[in-house]
Input
Amino acid sequence: MNIALKALVASILLLSVFVSQATQKEPFSTNVDKHGNITLPNDFRNEMVHLGSWFVPEGGASGFHDVYT
Output
């Protein structure tokens, strides 16, 4: 009985989330059109920035490491 009650509560919660999403008036995102095509924001950065480098002398991750964002 306990499992059935938990399943019922979970089903009700999932249904309420689905209904609230389906009745939402606002668009999902300004970068997604009604066909699901995604565009980048106007201020999206296309360049990478080098954050730093380091060297690990030995072990499984030995070698030079560079981090970019």
User: Anything to note?
Assistant: DSSP finds one helix and two strands in the chain. Residues 2-22 form the longest helix (21 residues). The mean pLDDT is 84. The first strand starts at residue 50 and ends at 56.
